[in-house]
Fold this protein.
Amino acid sequence: MKFSNFLGLAALASTASAGCFSGGEKWDGDKNAVLGTIDQVCTNGTLNRKYPAGSWDDNRPISHSWGLKSNRIVTLTIWLNNIWGDTPLSMESCKDGLKKEVNGCEHGGVSEYTTWKYRADINTKK
């Protein structure tokens, strides 16, 4: 491997980390409904708002939860990995990050992409 290729791979590795949940509920027949809701909450401002400087941190993520007809609950959560003034979360970034957790992980998961951390989780209602 060329040194320049190695540097490129090292940079890529530092901007993303992913982890699928290894157990628990699966998306199964609810997957399309969840993907549709991601489109809604990332478009209507529920999750993709512009926050004032310093208002994002690991202790204050934004989340949206709702129940499914299958007696399960979904929680979508987004965190900002670093704070550099006002940081808008675009509609496209919101959708892309959350959908990766649904489409790429049968039980949901958590991933970080440079600025944002995304989590999609499905559980049985209690």
The two ends are 52 Å apart (CA to CA). The chain has three helices and seven strands. Residues 1-15 have pLDDT under 50 and may be disordered.
